[in-house]
Amino acid sequence: MALPLLPGNSFNRNVGKEKFHKSQHWGFCNNVMMLVSDEKPGIGGEPLLGQKIKPKCSIYPKGDGSDVPSWVAFDKQVLSFDAYLEEEVPDKSQTNYRIRYYKIYFYPEDDTIQVNEPEVKNSGLLQGTSIRRHRITLPPPDEDQFYTVYHFNVGTEVVFYGRTFKIYDCDAFTRNFLRKIGVKVNPPVPCPEDPYMKIRREVLEHVEPLRPYESLDTLKKFLQYHGKILCFFCLWDDSVSMFGDRRELILHYFLCDDTIEIKELLPHNSGQDAMKMFLRRSKLPKNCPPRVYQPGQITDRAVLNLYGDFIKNQADGFLMDRYKLGEVDQEFYKDSDLSLGVTINVWGRKVLLYDCDEFTKSYYKSKYGIENFTSVSCKPPSPPPKIERKFPPYNGFGSEEDSLRTCIGLKPTPHRRNFKKFMEKDSYGFKSNILRFFAKLVTDKCVDLDRMFVISYYLSDDTISVFEPIERNSGITGGMFLKRSRVKKPGQEVFKSELSEYIKAEDLYIGVTVNVNGYLFRLLNADEYTLNYMEQNTDKYPFSNLKLALQKLKQEEAKSRELKQVFRAADREHTKKVDYNTFRDILMSFTVGNLSEQEFVTIVRHYRAPEDTCSDVDFLIALAHEKFKKNMFENFDSFIYSCVYEDREKKNVLPTKDIKRLCKSSRLPLSDDLLESLLSRFEDSEKQIDYKSFFSALNWRKNPVPELQPASCLKERCEDIWLGMPSPIPAKYIDYLTLLKDVFGLEEE
Predict the structure, then answer these.
(1) Which strands sit side by side in the sheet containing 246-254, from one edge to the other?
(2) Which segments constitute the EF-hand domain (predicted)?
(3) Is the pLDDT of residue 587 over 70?
(4) CB 437, CB 421: distance < 8 Å
(5) 3-state secondary structure of 143
(6) In the beta sheet, which residues pair with residue 97?
């Protein structure tokens, strides 16, 4: 009876096996068939019976982590071994052999080895890289194998190309690495000393100079202290002399050659000539010489005589003064002579050292053990009391600034404007930097009650101009009411010594009454740029701060339910929005005058409901058609063909950036702002555009639109004309439900 074909009941060894390839053991050599290799495995890569395959690289024990290849696991890891080599010397007059020291680097990622010999000064040997990085085979008879990590240990010998290296130590990382893979690391072995270097060191210790002259080798000191400079802050008080004053100095002491240089710190507008150096770099003597030294009097060495063939103008040698007769004894300032509070003699000038930098402090602390570096107080004597300058009052001629300039100097100079503010706040591009307000004249005269004005405030120079729009058959001329000028605040004395205060940008906001040269104007509204500017600069315009306005509403939280019911009663069609006039009446009665006009406009602008943009799209298309007619542009079919070609998925839509790129590459005669506005109107929520409807709407031949009506021409044109009078209301409808949710947290029921 046969066993069922279930796991555990079959004796077939090939069950579950996937690899059945055979290795190529036979080949041809010189047209003779022979056994190529006896180390190749059997069927499926399994070893043959009794076969032991020698590993070709290091086999590391498997860990608990991820099974990554060795070139990833051991990347940038190097095992370092210290070894030495005994080398026989051909010339055995001094020593029979030499000891050469090496660094053996083993790279676990690919079993490569590199041997370097550190450079030894005056060794007479070519040192550096002895064996470049590569895999090294074992010595015979195992030359078919390579060195692995298990062949290296402290106290063992390795043979590289016939040269025997004795390993005597390794670094801490290598010792830890070998211990982790299961190798017992031997303790360090003493390293023998090179006999030649030992003999050379003993000879150099007993060598004495043959010439008795003093050595002037300053190279060691230069290399040790090059670039290291001590910095002291000094004071030379010359106020006792005529026309003298206190001089601030900086002393630099160069440690490489013990020289000193002094620079002078001149304040701005000091009236003194700016000198590059107060004292050029040189050694500074402690005592001033009584007279100027003659040339050649101060020398390092004195030559007594020359000897040789003077007929041929050739000297064979010279004789120097070994006893230094006539040497001038000079004592110079050293680093040990400089410290805080010390007064040094700089060629007859008493200079006080009162402070130093951090490097100087660390230098004296490490070399001389000085801990106290308290700076010396050298404050100048208190100046005499400054007499307050009084100016005469304004006499009424010219401006106040010009009259004040005549009192400052004998030669009057014009008043300097704030040029930086003018450059920053002057109009450029689409940024006008002009605040425009729609105002009404506050008066008791019935004729002037309905007069409207445009008040413009220029941020570049704080000037104000008032313009009255021209209305036909009104009986009023209109035009420029007040030319551009600065307007003084009311209630100030005219003839006074101080400058008058003028109306600033912070004094203008919706709802305030402004006195302009005796005329009272009530600000009713502002243009879009002005409102945006005030909302962006809430530090200057607190009434345009939405958070402060909402906090005033939140103070009436007890009436929130009542307010919601009033809004619902006004919203009969349940559209979740009310018109502007209804919203104003409800909110103003709710706050009982606690909310200003500017704060109310800020709330309305934030919570206004979106309006229908169809008229805006028609206006943009009409403007684009006018551009196309002027340029005789009619090639709209090619745009649609190009879009159909790029629309691989045949969805009749393309991304907005592709449509814009196509219009730019085809040089569509539209400005960047107009093109961006048109694309934004035809863009859907996924930022894609129906290209057929877009280009069909732009085709002025097939889909014409009514032409733009020209603006009515005014009798007088000036820069204060407010093109397009502002709407009397900032928004048509307001989303009251969102306001109640943000302020009181009331949800829709």
Answers:
(1) 279-282, 259-265, 246-254, 229-237, 349-356, 343-346
(2) 558-593
(3) yes
(4) no
(5) coil
(6) 88
